Amino acid sequence: MSNKKVSRRQFLNYTLTGVGGFMAASILMPMIRFAIDPALQAKAEGDFILTSQKIDELTDVPVRVDFSYEQVDAWYKSEVSEMAWVYKEGDKIIALSPVCKHLGCTVNWEGGEHKNEYFCACHAGRYEKNGKNIAGTPPTGPLDQYEVSEKDGYLMLGKKIPNTLA
Amino acid sequence: MYFQTKDVQQYQQNKEFIDTAIVPLLSLDFSEDNIVKSSSEAEFLMALTAFVEQQFRGRLMLLPPYSYTEQTKREELVLALKQNIQEGGFKHVVFITCDHYWTKLQDELDVIWLPAIPIESMDKDVKKRILEEQLKQLIPILSSKWYQR
């Protein structure tokens, strides 16, 4: 420790700078946080939803997998149920959205006695197993796909993405 | 489709495909003894019609329920409603209800009557299965309308 005396002027300078710095920081911090907020959001499991479908029970025949999640719409919370048609192709798991690309009905695997196809009962739209729309029927594009993942042997479904197979 | 701006706009562009209107006929009873039962019926009817909408949204429009009490139940109003909907361009107008009363109008109206199932106490998987069972009964009725020309 030096024995130099700190003058009154210096003391006031130091304390004011210190206190001023704190005040500036407390104003700026929330502003900065606010600006970079999206980067701070924690990504919960990459938004994947766990289903009750065991991975090793999947075959090359599409099965229906139901799943649900909570959706908050302003003040209204609701439970949204969705489903997917899931099958295995080799080791790859394919999950297709059942929402018809025509006007949004739900399509069924081998519905209306159309073997090895998805069928939409509304306007007789048809899709191949990989979701490709069959020409000459109303749908204008292939069925969407879900991102898939796995947790403890169970299937997880993620975001809807455009079909990558058809 | 629901009777909502976004869906209605889509409907206007696809009128030739969406040819069916679904109207839930909902009986309201506010008496001490029946209000709970009445709300349970409403819950079932709304859940079921929403499920039908989800399955067939490209073919039908689910309208807001036509609600009435014992005193405001008027056949002629429902018949007029049906006519107005048809004038608006819907080929089929299907009424779904838990109130047995309307089945006597079978000749003038397409009425589907279903006994109400108290779904409020069920857990979500059972509820879903029940609604699916009910839907299975509706599908042949709807498709018979759609495929008769």
Give a written overview of the molecule.
Chain B: Pfam families: DUF2487. Chain B: InterPro entries: DUF2487 (IPR019615). Chain B: This is DUF2487 family protein. The complex is a heterodimer of chains A (166) and B (149). Chain A has 166 residues and is of the alpha+beta class. Helix content of chain A is 19%, strand content 36%. Chain A has helices at residues 8-35, 37-40; strands spanning 49-54, 63-73, 76-89, 92-96, 108-109, 118-120, 125-127, 145-151, 154-161. In chain A, the strands form 3 sheets. A 3-stranded antiparallel beta sheet of chain A has the order 1-9-8, with no helix packed on it. By secondary structure, chain B is of the alpha/beta class. Chain B has one domain (5-140): 3-Layer(aba) Sandwich (Rossmann fold). In chain B, 46% of the residues lie in helices and 16% in strands. Chain B has helices spanning 5-13, 35-56, 75-87, 124-147; strands at 20-27, 60-62, 66-68, 92-97, 110-113. Classes of the chains: A alpha+beta (166), B alpha/beta (149). The A-B interface holds A 66, 68, 79, 81, 100, 102-106, 120-123, 138 and B 10, 14, 17-18, 54-59, 124, 128, 139, 143.
Structural topology:
The complex is a heterodimer of chains A (166) and B (149).
Chain A: H1 8-35, H2 37-40, E1 49-54, E2 63-73, E3 76-89, E4 92-96, E5 108-109, E6 118-120, E7 125-127, E8 145-151, E9 154-161
Antiparallel strand pairs in A: 1-9, 2-3, 3-4, 5-6, 6-7, 8-9
Chain B: H1 5-13, E1 20-27, H2 35-56, E2 60-62, E3 66-68, H3 75-87, E4 92-97, E5 110-113, H4 124-147
Parallel strand pairs in B: 1-2, 1-3, 1-4, 4-5
Helix pairs in contact in B: 2-4
In short:
Chain B: It comes from Ureibacillus terrenus. Chain A is of the alpha+beta class.
Count of domain modules of chain A: 2
Supply the CATH architecture of the largest domain in chain A.
3-layer Sandwich
Quaternary state reads heterodimer
The CATH homology group name of the largest domain in chain A: Rieske [2Fe-2S] iron-sulphur domain
What CATH calls the topology of chain B is Rossmann fold
- Approximate helicity band of chain A: 10-25%
Can you tell me the overall shape of chain A?
elongated
How many alpha or pi helices of chain B? 4
Instruction: Output the CATH class name of the largest domain in chain A.
Output: Mainly Beta
Overall domain count of chain B: 1
